[in-house]
């Protein structure tokens, strides 16, 4: 459909952003033939692009403008003033097209926090049916399960969805280290080490993502219109005490257009673009809007605030020569091409399976030699000191997160394992694993689950093509730095545990050999210095249009409606009031499924 054809119609619902959440809403709302639904997506439609379909080819998409927005943060004071690269999907399907395909779940307390903060209907039990609704779980075969070390033992099929459009499939050192025996995360807790499922279709061995799952099966619906390569510039409003959206302006092929909306505008731009769109439309802090020459429609300084991300701090170890790692692909174009052709022709090889090895660790595992009383005293001291210096920090959210850290079923850190070394000095997102040390390497990465650091995303210009200023403020809260440092020390010790140790090269003292650009820390001070040098994003930003009471920092209410408007909602990870553990795509799908039901209920 051309832009000229698109604007000839008026639509009941105009969805801004055809990403992970936007296409869920488009599919669910257009189930009603009496309703007209449209989607405006800034990127292109790349369905059936083998670069996307190959599950383990995500690094080949980063930094390429046809797939990736290629955002960058402002220099991060907590990371020695380094800039961090934030790849975000720029095509139909959004970031579900370029992510790691890893499927993990929020804990029970993660979502119960949302209810405690004043969001009725948003607890773990409320969202559980929506997780099952989008999910099509395929158990591992007996042979595959044996290769994965009995991974399926930690999954209860009765807790899983089997009829949803999103495909989920399966591709021992942690037990020897004394970590908990895992259970199904859908039960509400996921402590321990295990292989987690991937978002891959077990029949086609292609990436299962939002465009494939929710858009492709519905392309023939006459009441669903999708326009790709259309950059939204602003939402138009009819003014009043409560403003009403009347249309959406956008650019396509260098020409400006606008489309009328009859019922609602639903913003699904993601954690970066949703606050940007609201601010460009006049909803946000009056100071920021006036500074950029934008008329103030709704003054709400909470827009773009509360940015929270999972930080990721890694260390690399040398592997014995008999164990090939991803360096083989990264350094030999001929082998890389053979691997790609192996996937194209046989749907097999290294590009068919993305990383799966993960562990979720409680805070007590990070400091095993500290008593619970000593640990709590240390945490309370860090929190109270920071609160005194930053009185604007949300006391209620801080209290929920610190309480959660001491719950025996909750994780303070997510550990990831990659069969490749890390480049400490990477100058682009795709360069993260392109290090120069010879030989084979593996990396362990410790990721935050409930960061207390809060940053912001705000426009720098009234031009929608200008990227906003992204400041996640990594390690601005001392407890985040403390947890990352302790996780680094634990990763060094984990490398000495069998059977991993037997796969690694050892020095003359019998210790695993670290990457020449790294230095294995032995003290907390050394660990703190190290994580500042090699911490990046885990690609899970959230919270910039928080679902909270307005006086507590909210941008949307519990119906996801933007405060001060009668018919604008936000549906994506930006509405998370507090972060959830692990990879967030499952939570985004569940939020979008619930949002669709909320909107449908109001149709009646």
Automatic annotation (TrEMBL):
SUPFAM superfamilies, alphabetized: FAD-linked reductases, C-terminal domain, FAD/NAD(P)-binding domain
Cofactor: FAD
Keywords from the named record: FAD, Flavoprotein
Binding sites annotated in the UniProt record for FAD: 232
Pfam families assigned to the protein according to its UniProt record, in alphabetical order: GMC_oxred_C, GMC_oxred_N
Gene Ontology molecular function, alphabetical: flavin adenine dinucleotide binding; oxidoreductase activity, acting on CH-OH group of donors
Start and end residues of each Glucose-methanol-choline oxidoreductase N-terminal domain: 89-112, 270-284
Family matches, as InterPro entries: FAD/NAD-bd_sf (IPR036188), GMC_OxRdtase (IPR012132), GMC_OxRdtase_N (IPR000172), GMC_OxRtase_C (IPR007867)
Homology family: Belongs to the GMC oxidoreductase family.
PANTHER family, A to Z: GLUCOSE-METHANOL-CHOLINE GMC OXIDOREDUCTASE (PTHR11552), GLUCOSE-METHANOL-CHOLINE OXIDOREDUCTASE N-TERMINAL DOMAIN-CONTAINING PROTEIN-RELATED (PTHR11552:SF210)
UniProt name for this protein: Alcohol oxidase
Organism: Lophium mytilinum
